[in-house]
Amino acid sequence: MAAKTKNEADKLVRSLDTVGFYSDFSKPGMLHAKLIRSPSDSGKLKSIELLDIPDGYFLFAASSIPGARTISVGKASISVFVEKNVSYRGEPVAILAGPDRNTVEELARKVSISFDVENLETALDHVIKNQSPQSVHADVSDMADFINDLPSLNHVIDKSHFEEYSAKEVARREVKVGVYEQKPLDEADRDAFKGAGLFITTDTWQHTMTAPKWQETDGAFSYMDGKDLHIYTPTRWTSLVQKSISESLRIPPENIFIHKTKSAEIFPNGLWRTTQTAVQTAIAAYLSKKPVKLVLSQEEQEHYMIPGVITTIKYKTAVTQEGKLHAMKILIDIDIGLSNPFAQEIVDRITLASFSFYKPENLHIVATAHTSKKAPTTICVQSIDSQAFFAIENEVQKICNKIKIFPDEFRLMNSLNSFDEKKQKVFPFDIQICGLDTTMKSVLKDSDFNRKYASFHMEAIDRIEKSGKPFFALPLRGVGLASAYTVSGYSGVTSFSYDSKIEVTLLKDDRVIIHAIKPSSVVQGLWKKSVADILGTPPQNIEIDSNFTVDTLPSSPEDTFTSIGIMNDLIKKCCAEIQKKRFHQPLPISAKKGVLKSTKKKWDKERFTGTPFSATSFATAVVEIELDTYTYNEKIKGIWIAVDCGEIFDEAAAIRTVRMEVQQELAMLVRDKTIQCDEIHISFMKSDNKSGQIGGLVHNIIPAAFSSALSLALTKQLTSLPCSEGRLFTLIKNKSSKK
Predict the structure, then answer these.
(1) Regarding predicted confidence, which is higher, 653 or 292?
(2) What is the 3-state secondary structure (H, E, C) of 498-517?
(3) Is the bond preceding residue 722 a cis peptide, omega within 30 degrees?
(4) What are phi and psi of 298, to 5 degrees?
């Protein structure tokens, strides 16, 4: 085979550096696109028509696609456009594109979607309910009379051959510890929850992840350049986008150029769902031979691009008089929508987080994931377990309020770190928690938590005993504490490989190339420091190369192999190997390293036991709030956070990162509102532990600390977030008016 020329070789190179926001890109003659969605939640699609479509406007449906009409990941798949059977209301059935955005919006309302007769009732009902007055014809009264004279469709349509939609269980995990391992379930429940002197509590928790509206919505920009197709999209899985477009359009991968743009800072959909919008946009650009931009509306983003899964977690907890966790029974229900290729991984990670760093003597967890008639969901690797941390930390805070024990005492007493394995029964999970004591002591001292907690708690009790009426001029006050970890290197692989690999090359001119996807500037500094310390190369001579060939693009999503601690350790090992060779063989010298198999052997995937994570970062947060009894507005008086994430290269930059995440989190606690807080205090513990992740820690602790503080102020347990101003108004008013 003849060697490739330089131009041919360059054409196969793909950069995984980000290039701004997709919505900022445009070209002359660009078309604006809009997805046409099904008005019905079920039914067999018959036709999609737009009469008198103007010149220069295009409507493409499944029948227009030259190749594959589905996008597959593992055993899960979604349609690019519905071809036959509709699965949920709002499912894309076509894409409309044209030069004028307003005209496109107007034409979209005129697209006719026809179903087979047995589905006419559902579609007609939806159209009538959503008909705008401007689009009603002058003879609407005659049409209404005509419709009223018709017999009910229920009487004339034979639906006997149709079955009601039935949700399917797609993933399951069950954990049994203590008496649940030894006895039948009914008998184990009696032993776990019928003991003398036990405090029993039951509650259900839900934290729905909602992306703030100031974030760029999902979408893509695409255009043809000769035979080459270019697409700008906020993906974190470039190889999947390239593969899916190649299969749908039947064009070679080397003719597809994926330009990775910035992903959403909170809850990115780039692992799977963004691929669908990228393919839809590419199809419109390829078939129209025009540049096309698709930008989803905020309504579409909220309804059809769900960040993560909808999870409900129910706890039944038994606590001894001394405050020891005697038993926990946890039922986890996960709604994945139409499909989710990461269902088992989501179930397993939420299962592990549902007991957090606590160690109850008896534990029974049943976690299931099921389908529903909602849009497909995805996975947020950094916040996959945040809903479980929200639930367990609220459960713990509620227990502390009821049995009158300080929250820090309860946590330290029941943590995994507090148990002596020689004296205690073996626990099936070994989760290494570093910084539990130090972060908690630091944040308690800085926030004066225990004094405030005791004072606010006594005031709340006094308020209840005095008919629940607060003095009219005084605000309701509360303070909440929450602790959680975030992980590096999950060993329970189910959906994709977590095999972190890296290559380091020392060149003749004392330059060093790190071949990897560029992380944040803070992490880049950490990597360069590691190289400089071992090889003696000046930081300005160290380059991070994010170029890959078409055939060597990472097969797994970026979020699965960019763990700070793991990648930094691999870089150090590469440099140590180069240092040994540099005086014995000519330059350049390269070294490649990956995660040792022995690390993964600590986790038994079949039995679901052992050490699931290679490292953890830990954080504790305190949130203090006030609720004004006149305006019913909430105000955060202060936030204190202490973090142990091992070695830190640039503490100032790390503090800025956490502060930014706190501000982002404040935009999601109350629906359609950003809460202000001017007093944010962040401290990092001095630690010799491995460098760990920082991203995701804030989302694992702030919601629980906030809701715990609100619950104390209201003397009413909040069981879900985000809350709304209307809900707070009702809770405060009810409390104030009780007799």
Answers:
(1) 292
(2) CCCEEEEEECCCCCEEEECC
(3) yes
(4) -60, -35
The DSSP result for 176-226, as a single string, is EETHHHHS-HHHHHHHHH--TT-EEEEEEEEE-----TTSPPSEEEEEEET
Alpha carbon distance 511, 301 (integer Å): 45
Tokens linked to 160:
């006997």
Residues in the chain: 739
| Tokens of residue 5, six digits | 């020329």
The residue among 273, 286, 270, 287 whose CA lies nearest residue 231 is 286
Residue 210 phi, psi dihedral angles, 5° rounding: -130, 125
Residues 6+ apart with CB under 8 A from 248: 65, 66, 67, 68, 69, 71, 80, 279, 282, 283
- Alpha helix (H) residue ranges in 250-365: 273-288, 298-304, 343-353
| pTM beyond cutoff 0.70 | yes
pLDDT in tens, 171-189: 999 999 999 999 999 999 9
List the structure tokens of 727: 């809900």
Please give the single-letter amino acid code of residue 55. D
CA distances from 585 to 412, 537, 578, 581, 590 (A): 54, 18, 10, 6, 11
Other CB atoms within 10 A of residue 173 CB? 19
SS3 124: helix
Asked whether 535 and 527 are in contact (CB, 8 A), the reply is no
- Strand-pair partners of 485: 618
Q: How far apart are CA 668 and CA 213, in angstroms?
A: 10
**Cβ atoms of residues 383 and 350 within 8 Å:** no
Per-residue pLDDT of 551-592, as tens digits, reads: 888 888 887 655 666 788 889 999 999 999 998 899 999 999
Q: Comparing C-alpha atoms, which of 21, 25, 27 is closest to residue 99?
A: 27
**Cα distance between residue 231 and residue 277, in whole Å:** 11
Within 605-651, strands assigned E span: 609-610, 613-627, 634-644
724: which DSSP letter? -
Token readout for 596 is: 């040792």
> Which residues are within 8 A (CB) of 694 and not within 5 positions of it... i.e. 6 or more apart?
486, 564, 617, 643, 645, 654, 657, 658
CB 719 within 8 A of CB 623: no
